[in-house]
Amino acid sequence: MAKLIPRISSRKNGHIRLHKNTHRITHGIIHIQASLQNTIVTVTDIKGRVISWASAGSAGFKGTTKKTPFAAQTAVKNAIRTAVNQGMHKADVLIKGPGLGRDAALRAIRLSRIRLELIMDITPIPHNGCRPPKKRRV
Where are the beta strands (DSSP E) in 26-110? Predict the structure, then answer.
């Protein structure tokens, strides 16, 4: 006679977890890196843990259309959607880089339901920079 194999259940103590454990985030930081070729948007909480991110390339733009303001606006909308669903309604914005998508990204954030607490430009500026090349002799 064959032995009965006990059935192992994936449930622990009869409890089924229906929803993923999501954190309610009320205040966060939106990092915008606007380079000359692409715009990358990262949404974090106050401690710096990434909630969501998006770029113009991940939004479906290719080639020279990645650096357009419309691509930056679309990337911001994609990144913010997840944060708003988790309860974010206040944010600080840190903008870095010289790209075309800077103003369009900020405009898209203002049109969303997020209230802006702080807007700061953190573009790195050299305070003397690298040593220039030696003078050319002909």
Answer: 27-34, 39-45, 50-55, 90-96
